[in-house]
Design goal:
This protein is α+β, with helices and mostly antiparallel strands. It is built from 2 helices and 4 strands; from the N terminus they run H-E-E-E-E-H. Helices cover 44% and strands 21% of the residues. The longest helix has 22 residues. The protein is flat. InterPro entries: DUF4321.
């Protein structure tokens, strides 16, 4: 699956996912350091309480929470820059 300019869209997806995960991890680690605590600042959104579907024999629980931090935004920007140079 090739995107515009012949670049692979899966590579972009994996780079963005890596940027989000590593940025979130760095933001979580930086919360304890006073000079870097701004990297952990962000917003959480999603389902506060999960949705439970009880079918008698099967119980299904749906839930999704996303936390976007400054560090994860920086990680996404770095991932896009790396993708452009590939």
């Amino acid at each position: 699956m090739k995107g515009a300019g012949g670049k692979n869209s899966w590579a972009l997806f994996l780079l963005l996912l890596t940027g989000i995960v590593l940025g979130g991890f760095i933001g979580m680690l930086a919360e304890g350091v006073p000079a870097l605590s701004w990297l952990g600042y962000g917003q959480t959104f999603g389902l506060d309480t999960p949705i439970v579907v009880n079918l008698g024999l099967l119980v299904i629980t749906f839930g999704l929470t996303i936390k976007i931090t400054i560090a994860s935004i920086i990680g996404v920007v770095i991932a896009i820059i790396i993708y452009r140079f590939l």
